[in-house]
């Protein structure tokens, strides 16, 4: 069952929506969402194909249990389709999907005591690039930066991902993570301070 939705979506992999050149992204998203709510299966396929990879990456910042993340994404799209006629409008589909997926993952984690949201010692797959000639020094600095990223708390890593990789504003980060705005600023601020200190140490190796 876990692959049902994926296979169904792939059957319509080449289905696309045609928009006039220059149509704002927000308008295209609203149009597709309206079609989805009107039971257009091509709209479901469009949303799946556009966001499934982003959802998987984001889910991986919350839990290292990749099978569970995949199940939650599958459940998310099945639930969306089943409830399509009672869903309201949304100004930001990605934000809505991220928030819904996070709730599902957190809910599953809370019911599995042995499941840790993120393995603290795991290597974090963030892009790291340093323009340094000496190969050995590059390797050492990359290792130090990975350690700095891994030293962040689960919520700090998630917030950093949403801020600097998904480019969400602070208010949306707060909403996705179920925080108040002040707490969102605080979480990201502490994470940036930690990384800033790490960068200082790295360049004094």
From TrEMBL:
GO biological process: DNA-templated transcription initiation
Annotated InterPro entries: RNA_pol_sigma-70-like, RNA_pol_sigma-70_dom, RNA_pol_sigma70_r2, RNA_pol_sigma70_r4_t2, RNA_pol_sigma_r2, RNA_pol_sigma_r3/r4-like, WH-like_DNA-bd_sf
Cross-referenced SUPFAM superfamilies: Sigma2 domain of RNA polymerase sigma factors (SSF88946), Sigma3 and sigma4 domains of RNA polymerase sigma factors (SSF88659)
Top-rank taxon: Bacteria
Record-annotated membrane-spanning stretches: none
GO molecular function, one term: sigma factor activity
RNA polymerase sigma-70 region domain span: 47-111
Keywords: Sigma factor, Transcription, Transcription regulation
Residues of the RNA polymerase sigma factor 70 region 4 type domain: 144-186
Gene3D superfamilies: 1.10.1740.10, Winged helix-like DNA-binding domain superfamily/Winged helix DNA-binding domain
PANTHER family, per the entry: RNA POLYMERASE ECF-TYPE SIGMA FACTO (PTHR43133), RNA POLYMERASE SIGMA-70 FACTOR ECF SUBFAMILY (PTHR43133:SF46)
Family: Belongs to the sigma-70 factor family. ECF subfamily.
Protein name per the record: Sigma-70 family RNA polymerase sigma factor
UniProt source species: Pseudochryseolinea flava
């Amino acid at each position: 069952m876990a692959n049902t939705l994926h296979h169904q979506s792939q059957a319509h992999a080449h289905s696309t929506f045609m928009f006039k050149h220059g149509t704002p992204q927000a308008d295209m998203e609203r149009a597709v969402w309206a079609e989805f709510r009107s039971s257009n299966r091509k709209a479901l396929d469009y949303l799946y194909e556009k966001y499934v990879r982003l959802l998987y990456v984001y889910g991986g910042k919350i839990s290292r249990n990749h099978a569970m993340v995949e199940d939650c994404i599958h459940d998310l799209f099945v639930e969306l389709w089943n409830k399509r006629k009672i869903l309201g409008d949304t100004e930001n589909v990605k934000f809505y999907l991220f928030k819904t997926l996070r709730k599902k993952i957190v809910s599953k984690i809370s019911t599995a005591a042995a499941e840790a949201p993120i393995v603290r010692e795991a290597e974090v797959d963030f892009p790291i690039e340093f323009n340094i000639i000496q190969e050995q020094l590059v390797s050492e600095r990359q290792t130090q930066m990975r350690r700095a990223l891994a030293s962040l708390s689960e919520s700090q890593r998630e917030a950093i991902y949403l801020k600097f990789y998904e480019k969400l504003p602070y208010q949306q980060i707060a909403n996705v993570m179920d925080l108040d705005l002040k707490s969102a600023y605080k979480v990201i601020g502490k994470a940036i301070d930690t990384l800033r200190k790490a960068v200082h140490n790295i360049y004094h190796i």
